Amino acid sequence: MSLFVASRTALRASAPLKKSFQLCNYATEPTPSSSNLNKYLAGLGAVAVGAGAYFYAGSSPAAKKAEEKVKDAIADKVSTPPTKAFTGDWLSLKVDEVEQVNHNSKRLRLKLPEENQVSGLDVASAVLTKFKPEGAEKAVLRPYTPISDEDAKGYVDLLVKKYPNGPMSTHLHELKPGQTVDIKGPLPKYPWSANKHEHIALVAGGTGITPMYQLLRAIFNNPEDKTKVTLVFGNITEEDILLKKELTKLENTYPQRFRAFYVLDNPPKSWAGGKGFINKDLLKTVLPEPKNENIKVFVCGPPGMMDSISGNKKSPKDQGELNGILKELGYAPEQVYKF
User: Fold this and answer.
1) How far are the Cα atoms of 158, 161, 211 from residue 298, in angstroms, in the given order?
2) 94 beta partners
3) Which residues are annotated as a binding site?
4) Is the Cβ–Cβ distance between 124 and 192 less than 8 Å?
């Protein structure tokens, strides 16, 4: 067998390596030790010799040069981290998949420029979409928090609810695979780190669940993070509850650390959860008490809900005054964050 064929045989044998050393969720996997890498290279050598490529066992300069090329190729696959797609510039990403989630919400999978890229978003952060309607003087800008893992390679998923008079949501709902979305990021929100707070509460309404889900993924995908989480999630009907399957899975997997409470404006007769709006009695009962120092309450939802629970923020960089139910219950401004 020629040296060229032997090298190609060895390189084919190395193909599973990419799959074996993919990055874990929210934690960078350490580079394999030199001993493990040597064992793997020894395996490659055995395969090559078994195929009649005795060059690897010999001492000819050509054989050694070929072996070094194989080692370099393996080292590149092992040590090169994926690049980040979102670096602050506008991108035009192709729509790869469209899934109808419920009567007014869709999941859009956007393809990143390179298959080996990750979004590059931190937790918690969002992206900004841009669309200029025909005849309009200015473009419409709307932020979205992706629901895909931050280390997912090659794509990013947006969960988009269509509003009757929403130009951006209507535009995104009309897109088909192959069309593009103008998007950029990251838009930094609340910097999260493992065990930053002992207990956090997430008070969400409608699509306000997306930044909450981003936090949930970061916490429960990290075995070092022991944070307790309480979710209060308000919607109009049962069909409007987004990510219900994912939330239920988390609750069943971590029953000692995660509890979810659902409230519906128009519940069915069989509904066993809360009814009406998220109110003071419910929050007083289920949220961690404000006297506990190392807690945080996150709030995200439509303006009316925000007014009632915490008051709206003034701008992306100005949280505004703390008002509403949380102020009445005795929470301090530094204990509350408005997405």
Assistant:
1) 21, 21, 9
2) 111, 180
3) 142-144, 159, 161, 168-169, 210
4) yes
Residue with tokens 């190392």: 294
- Claim: this prediction has a pTM higher than 0.90: no
**What does the radius of gyration of the chain's CA atoms come to, in whole angstroms?**
25
Rounded Cα–Cα distance for residues 192 and 218 (Å): 8
Annotated binding site for FAD: 142-144, 159, 161, 168-169, 210
For residue 79, the model assigns a pLDDT of: 59
Instruction: Give whole-number Cα distances, 268 to 101, 241, 245, 272, 275, in Å.
Output: 20, 13, 19, 9, 10
In 157-197, where does DSSP find H-type helix? Answer: 167-174
pLDDT single digits (tens) 97-154:
999 999 999 999 999 999 999 998 999 999 999 999 988 999 999 999 999 999 999 9
Bridge partner list, 161: 105
61-79 and 34-50 helices cross at what angle (nearest 10)? Answer: 130
* Stretches in the chain below the pLDDT threshold 50: 1-58
How much is the pLDDT for 81?
Answer: 84
252-to-148, 246, 259 alpha-carbon distances in Å: 20, 10, 9
DSSP state of 206: G
Of the candidates 160, 258, 159, 278, the one whose C-alpha atom is nearest the C-alpha of residue 217 is 258
**Confidence at residue 43, expressed as pLDDT on a 0 to 100 scale:** 47
Domains and CATH numbers, the chain: 3-79 (no CATH), 91-188 (2.40.30.10), 199-338 (3.40.50.80)
Rounded-to-integer distance, Cα 62 and Cα 132, Å: 60
Whose structure tokens read 């509460």? 201
| Contact by Cβ (8 Å): 242, 212 | no
231-251: pLDDT as tens digits? 999 999 999 999 999 999 999
Q: What is the DSSP letter of 16?
A: T
Token pair in block for residue 334: 């530094």
Q: How many CB atoms neighbour CB 220 within 10 A?
A: 19
Answer whether 88's CB lies under 8 Å from 172's CB: no
